[in-house]
Amino acid sequence: MRRLGLVLLLLAATGSFPVLVPEAAAQGRSYEWRTSLSATGRFTAVATSIDGSIALAGRDFPLDSPEKIRITRDGGGTWASLANSPTALWSDVAMDDDGSVMALTGEASGQSTLWLSHDGGTSFSVALAQGGTSYGRLALSADGARVLVLSSAGVLLSTNGGMTFGPVAGLGSVTTGDVAMTSDGTTMYAAHNAGGLHRSTDGGGTWAAVAAAGSQNWSSFDVSGDGQTLLGVVSYQQPGVAALVSNDGGATFFEAPGVGATFNNQLAQGGLSRDGRVMVATTYGTSPMVSADGGQTWVESGGGARGWLRFALSGDGSSLYGAVESQGVVQRALVPPPVISGLSPSSLQSVGGQTLTVTGTHFVGVTTVTVAGQSRPFTVVSSTQLRVTTSAMAVQTAEVVVTTTNGSTSATVPVQFPEITGVSP
Question: Is the omega angle on the peptide bond into residue 345 within 30 degrees of 0, that is, cis?
Answer without folding.
Answer: yes
